[in-house]
Amino acid sequence: MTETRKNFTSKLGVVLAAAGSAVGLGNVWRFPTEVGNNGGAAFILIYLICVLAVGVPVMMSEFLIGRHTHANTITAFSKLAPGKWWRIQGVSGVFVAFLILSYYTVISGWTLYYLVQSLKGGLLESQDYLAYFSSFVSDPYMPVIYAAVFMLMTHLVIARGVQSGIERFSKIMMPLLLLIICVLVVCSFGMPGAGTGLRFLLKPDFSKVTASVVLSAMGQAFFSLSLAMGCLCTYASYFTSDTKLVKTAFSVCSIDTFVAVLSGFIIFPAVFSVEGVNPDEGPGLVFVTLPYVFNMAFHQSVPLLGYLFSGLFYLLLLLAALTSAMSLHESVTAYVIESLRLPRKKASAWVSVCCMALGVLCSLSFGVLSDVTVCGLTIFDLFDFCASKIIMPAGGLIICLFTGWYLDRKLVYNELTNEGTVPFRLFRVYVFLIRYVVPVAIALIFINELLG
Ligand code: TRP
Fold first, then answer.
1. Residue 346: is its pLDDT beyond 90?
2. β-sheet bridge partners, residue 377
3. Per-residue DSSP letter, 2
4. Helical H runs in 203-342?
5. Please, are residues 403 and 57 in contact by the beta-carbon 8 Å criterion?
6. What's 284's DSSP letter?
7. Most confident of 211-215, 225-229, 285-289, 350-354
8. What is the mean pLDDT of the chain?
9. CA–centroid distance, residue 324 to ligand 1 (Å)
10. Strand 373-374 with 377-378, pairing
11. Ligand 1: which atom is nearest the Cα of residue 387?
12. Ligand 1: which atom is nearest the Cα of residue 222?
């Protein structure tokens, strides 16, 4: 027997669950890295434009598809377009959510390890952070064990269901996450290099803006807002008929952007306060540069502050990762429950175990399997490349074409306005964006990626 479908019970639950999906490693780890690599404030400005012009309309589209059909992503597309090839979008969404979850779990496992180590004091005692990081990620056992523990945490929430799992935990974790961010921003502003860091974040240098910077900003917006993979579609299938879709999309995008920018405000003032550290360190920024910064800035003078700052920072990263992993897990689990008619506990266990099996491969690709490559990419890089560079932009494009051109305009309007009861004055602007602007923008990313 399948369980009866439940809905989120409150407006706050809806916003916090969806924001939990959006706010993740993408905000705290990937965004500052991209800002560092792409020249600071100018990137942030372009990112904001991408969120408004591309992110918000695509999110509204996912919401309306999910809420209208009250079904998992694959069934949602089948219901709206019976017998048509649009279903492929649902299929690729569920498949890619599964793929992303497998490597997302590996990085989340690293954050769990760094949290444990900072609390135990091991992290800040180290001297060479690059060697520390490399020897940890290339170890065959430790990262796998930590990834498995993280997967178990995600599993336990999802197995409890929509209301007492996802909604309840999002309501606890998201406020905690926002609180930690505020504390860390205040700490970071007090550091000696804060001024230089802030200048880097606030003074745009437009000479650095190239086509590829714009395209990176858009790719980042897609990843950070959890778009195009059916995650938000699945969550929206648990929205009730009085949830205001447009307002929710704006709230979620604002919270997500706010957290991303604040993460920049935490990281850059800290980074600039230590001499000889560059902001464009790439993916190692959070795992190599920051521990060094925590150590230099705090630990050597006031050890307790060092533990506190680094412990809080990795806790923030972990909470963010957990609520995002929940949404990736749920979009696969919802499909398994509804298509194979399995009870939730069994379905979620299957998803966790299969995904973890892939996760082991991803984790080992930093060590013993680092020689196994496809087109020069390790397993981890291959998964990330396929998901974020190919299938995600393609998914975004299909969702726009689907809502903009295929779906009946009346259906779209009724769903977004709750049958005309909630005014939506910018409906024409939305239609224009979703029909023309967003598809062209995404096509450009694609062409650039293929040529690049
Ligand atoms: N948005 C999350 C982050 O910022 C990651 C994520 C969750 C995601 N669900 C997704 C990315 C669906 C793409 C598609 O880390």
1. yes
2. 374
3. P
4. 211-224, 231-236, 245-272, 289-294, 303-340
5. no
6. G
7. 350-354
8. 90
9. 6
10. antiparallel
11. 13
12. 13
Sequence-separated (6 or more) residues with CB below 8 Å from residue 308? none
DSSP state of 4: P
For residue 156, the CA-to-ligand 1 centroid distance in Å is 19
Q: In 3-state terms, what secondary structure has residue 23?
A: coil
Going from the Cα of 22 to the center of ligand 1, the distance in angstroms, rounded, reads 6
Residue 342 per-residue DSSP state: -
pLDDT digits 0-9 by tens, 87-125: 999 999 999 999 999 999 999 999 999 999 988 877 777
Atom of ligand 1 nearest to the CA of 388: 13
Q: Which of 73, 110, 177, 327 to mutate to test the pocket of ligand 1 (most atoms within 8 A of CB)?
A: 327
Dig out the tokens for 223 from the structure.
């990843």
- Distance (angstroms) between ligand 1 centre and the Cα of 232 equals 10
Locate the ligand 1 atom nearest the alpha carbon of residue 22 and give its number. 1
Distances (CA, A) of 438 to 53, 63, 76, 168, 364: 8, 17, 22, 34, 38
* Domain range 11-451, its CATH number among 3.30.70.240, 3.90.1150.10, 3.40.50.10140, 1.20.1740.10: 1.20.1740.10
What pLDDT digit, counting tens, does each position of 223-250 carry? 899 998 889 999 999 999 999 999 999 9
Supply the pLDDT for residue 279: 66
Sorted by where each begins, the domain ranges of the chain are 11-451
Residue 289 CA to ligand 1 centre (angstroms): 24
Ligand 1: residues within 6 Å at CB?
A: 21-22, 24-27, 100, 223-224, 226, 229, 231, 324, 327-328
Torsion of CA 57, 101, 129, 114, to 10 degrees: 100
